Amino acid sequence: MTVRFYPAIAAATLAALTGLGAGANPARAQTAGQVSADYAVSFLGLSIGRGTMVSISDGRTYRTTLDARVTGVAAVFAGGSGTATATGRLTPNAAVPSSFDIEIRSGGKVETTRIAMNGGNVTAVERNPDKPPHPRATPVLPEHLQGVLDPLSAGIFVAGGSGPVTGAAACERRARIFGGRERFDLIFSFVETRQVDIGGYKGEAAVCRVRFEPIAGYRPDRNDIQNARRRSAEVILVPVRGTRHLVPARISLSTGYGTGVAEATRLALDGAPQARRASAD
């Protein structure tokens, strides 16, 4: 199974919720508010996880938190949960992250990673426990840590220009991502505009294809990495009301073992009071 590709895409694209306040229009970039979403993750039609994301912006800075946990049949084999938080400042066209923290809890053990950044460049990485890289892993060099995003901040989607928000401009991009140990790119390309009904949103959505490209920190002999490079995922983006920002409503990836899906069960896209939260059962 492509165990790394799917979580990487899920983390980066679900994090598009940080896009509130980071639009292509400078006046719109001063908009403050909150967006949030609940997601259900399944594999072969079986529930394996749940996640909730909340992003708050004052128009100049942002703070996004993602809480996730293993559920359903997957919890029988490997229970666990995790929390990730990203902070940074907003420019008219992109996020500029300043910190990324993630804590993973499983089997009574806790692993943490903290990344400090300045102007798109990594300035410090702290891991606990700090396991050495595999001797066959390609080294992460200083140039790999320049002009990058953390996995959450990488998910800001802004439709540039003045064309349709759910058109090609929503997708066309290459995100350079560092998560604390591995450097990879996600390459997004436009597929089509589609009518959807997901998580309480009904209307037009942009459909993107996503490809994974490992850069550094990987063992080149790993089958899952090579399989990930040959496959692509699909991401459905829906617009935040009154802006040129979009957030992911559905992410799907076909593997040699089946299809994994992360889909919104609730989307709060306009900063209004949250609707009744979908049941986690």
UniProtKB/TrEMBL annotation:
It holds the Pfam family DUF3108. It comes from Phreatobacter oligotrophus. Keywords: Signal. This is Uncharacterized protein DUF3108. InterPro entries: DUF3108. Residues 1-29 form the signal peptide. It comes from the Bacteria.
